[in-house]
Amino acid sequence: MAKHLLALSAFSKGELLAYLDRAMVLKREAKAGVRHQQLAGKSVALIFEKPSTRTRVSFESAMYGLGGQVIYLSGRDTQLARNEPLKDMARVMARYVDGMVIRTFGQEIVDELARYSTVPVINALTDLYHPCQVLSDIMTVIEHKGAVEQLKVAWIGDGNNMANAWIEAASRLGFALTLACPAGYDPNPQILAKAQAEASQPITVVREPAAAVAGADVINTDVWASMGQEAEQAARLKVFQPYQVNAALVKKAKADAIVLHCLPAHRDEEITGEVLEGPQSVVWDQAENKMHIHKAILAMHLS
Ligand code: CP
Ligand code: NVA
After folding, report:
1. pTM tops 0.85, yes or no
2. May I ask the CATH class of domain 8-130+289-302?
3. Which CATH superfamily is 133-286 part of?
4. Which of the residues 226, 276, 279, 299 has an alpha carbon 20 to 30 A from that of 99?
């Protein structure tokens, strides 16, 4: 297994399933009150240059749950804010901690940190990918549907970091993925082309949300303006209006389709309150599973 977790495409199907299996065992154990100490004496730095509720708290809780310690650093807490070169910070931090979890803007920042770090670097969201989130999402799909292979997954909305990570997951794990995105908001074309070339099931981009959800087992959406795109918010609100996940759209999928949203959600923008709170929504399980997946990731990369 790769030392760092930067993008899902770096992992084989077997390796991705190993994270999921481990997380499911850890979840069962957590419910049964089993305590772990396997990362006792170890620490991770959480370097977050964007806000976070779920990812930060679930990584912190996961590390404590394995007996380890965390050091949280927001964007303004490090000398990166005063232009210290990342390659210097990478080498220094690696002498203090056993791993780094980073949320930032460009994927090149995470790649550079990993290049110079002698300890594992975990991508907790960039503008390009949100790989740990998609592992939690797929764990949730498996819990509700038994397996992810042979399923038909729909992505509705922006071709963003979540969409790119789902595309790589579809290619590696072998499920059909149809993304409905407005023109101009497609997923990253290189990621899409590479994933399509390596996939066993179709990965397709369409314009019509109804076409994407037809026959779908899973409907997935995310905010219309990601962190860092606040200036585009008003323009995006107009463009994305036809891409709302609402009851009428959900009805066009299989009757037992589940609805995912990585949260935070904007009710009555990308998803209606009715759907988010409705019987097909699995978003709270999805949010919980972040902690179990993060435990698995920390245990597998830091042990
Ligand atoms: N889903 C997710 O990553 O949420 P946060 O931004 O709260 O971490
Ligand atoms: N696409 C969103 C995901 C938030 C968890 C963003 O990058 O803001």
Report:
1. yes
2. alpha beta
3. Aspartate/ornithine carbamoyltransferase (3.40.50.1370)
4. 226
